[in-house]
């Protein structure tokens, strides 16, 4: 048919096209940019669905036409029967009734840009706008478009456009006050407002400094599909004359004279990962790019891309801008004295001062990753400059802005005779890029330093001395110059003292739900001895809230605390950062950050309790049908009930599912009395006798971990759900203690035990917990109980009295010993064995699941654990429970996992054994009592960070382990969980062993993690998949 006939036919046949934006964007990892529009990456296939009004005829060819601005003609994508080539667009199609699924393959060298997509005002479109408004695009559009496949070309265009020095770029740079008509650079908290303001105004946004330039460039290049990361370092050199040295000039009075070269206190740039087809082989990989306008490159303010490898090897002829970048991290620092006749005298030099702690953010979390050795070979630390036997040092504490602080100048004489020195001491306010703003203090003293002694001069810097001249960077430069009598050379020492800022307190509600309003409280205390005015909080959080300002009316007096509230509706689930900035007339750039976990849904019954507690207090009652129940909340009420009045609250209700299953026997559901007391004592004693805290128990646990590790290794780095595996391992450990047997994970009896515990946990404390038994639970329980009877019979036949092999043998010994008491019989034994099974499996395995889940989603904490483990276990074949005392951070992580997951949110229900009283309330005998353990584990005032996962909740200021009284994950009192001791050992040995051998990774293609737990007697994480990648450093 003709083209016109074909087009007419298609108009009648094609009813619509589904771009599959959600699915494709998630697969291409662009769903955080947008999920309504299709945003895909080059070289990776994506799928479209064509809906037809009737099935396509076999003689019709379906083609896809793409248009892009400035391209002459259309891109026609056709079906290929064979595999397509890497440099062409092609597609495959699958037909089913009236639908056609198209899988589209794009070349890796496809031009970056927008293909037939409607314009919307968001970051992706702004990034395309940056390319389109660049000088190359405006001067020669066709040439520009022909090079947009090349990441080196794209990145060079972007870093030039991020600064506004040569073109209609994004940011105007300014390095010191006043910032009239713009935003103080320290106030920016993200790139999005900057890009949006630039797109609206069509002019450069005021103002930026190096970290702002690098952050914006990083955002743009990532959005355009080029892997990019921010880099920073301390003592960064700005070499203006190309001699790869920084020359600092002092006059004869040791006052620094302005020079073109400078050393910035810190500097930020970016690296992008790419192939360099314009260079010889071996120069691909990370490339340095710097959008901060410092020096021109090919006539424009830009820098790079330059291979990091070329910087390390000193290959300064490699393009682009290698000499300037090399000097930033490698230049020598030379201090010169200029005499009245103009002659220079070298005071000192240092070849290791520049380029310190070159760092980036770890891809696994918020921790710093040191990349110094990617830029330079290891350097030998130079000895501090000395004149003969005299050495000068400058010491200081960690001062806070707004306080007075001391600077100590130390002159040490290591020689055999006293020396006389003239000591000049100067303090100046400087910007982070070494611009001098004014002198804070200056003094000169003549001192005598005896042989082998140290002389100290203490200078107090007062707030009123530095407040008027210090910049928003809050840096004080302290210089000491010592002139020793009779010697020609002076001793020069210079340090930059950063002044830290006060903290902003952010309180987030305990449970944050997607698309439900929450109210946060933000607080700040004025640390200055003078009032603040024009106070303003700026808040922002990706997926939480767009940038907002909250102004503080009037003055904020010295020491005054101000609080504001902000209500917003989270838009995306998962882990989010809530950012706050405070600024005023005298104090700027005070930052605060809180981690917010946005859940998809509420945790059912437990979500009601915080609101009820807030309304009715720590002790209130609810009715379950016609049955009243008293709910206890908070540390004080729960400790009073279950410790101070333990016997009054030690009963069990007899209407629950588990009560019916156990018929009141055993330990967990047995009522308070002699039988319960004797069986609990027996259970705890037997666990101790069989190695709890001893080597034999370690061997059982570590042996089981080997089976777990073997299963994890079989995953070959592919996503897997580890939950069943952890349940199997915990169950097998307790089975080896009870029955003396280890089961294969697929054994029918073993699987029945696992299933029974899972079903009981789901409904025991749930809505059916007081109604009755389900047929499934009854059948599983009956089967397990019958099998255990068979194991007991085998033990009777093979045992040697008083030589127990396991718990069953120990119980049979007790039956022989206490035959007349009637307290120990076979029914009691079966109930006790099942109690131990439940206590030793469900709580521990769910806690391990939660801990692994948290470590996977908090990779910075995971890295800290692994560093501590590697350090403590260096040279050891395996971990030991005794190692815990040398791993305070690891223990803190385990405790925090137990706290944050609240595995036993309501524990097991209690009942009063007699009429009693609690906090002024009279409670009758037999009343159902529920302890809300979550109210304790998240209680305000008990924890540093009650609503976020943070191991610092269990560490003091010295990094030592501490355990607040509110830590009661297994409840408290005589009826606390039987499995606590076993759980402590198991959690430590399992997690340490797995962290030593594997890296826990959250897969990018499974969406954000859902922190909402599954409710039951024990809470469990929702099913999740993760990657266990073997660690190269495992010994």
Automatic annotation (TrEMBL):
Q: Name one GO biological process term.
A: nervous system development
Subcellular location per UniProt equals:
Membrane
The record's listing under SUPFAM superfamilies reads: Cysteine proteinases, Cytochrome P450, E set domains, Transglutaminase, two C-terminal domains
GO cellular component terms, alphabetically, are: membrane; mitochondrion
Q: What is its main location?
A: membrane
A Pfam family name for this chain?
p450
Where is heme bound in this sequence? 977
Q: Which cofactor does it need?
A: heme
Q: Which UniProt keywords apply?
A: Heme, Iron, Membrane, Metal-binding, Monooxygenase, Oxidoreductase
Q: Domain Transglutaminase-like spans what residues?
A: 202-293
Its name, as the record gives it, is Transglutaminase-like domain-containing protein
Native species of this protein? Muraenolepis orangiensis
The organism's taxonomy opens as: Eukaryota, Metazoa, Chordata, Craniata, Vertebrata
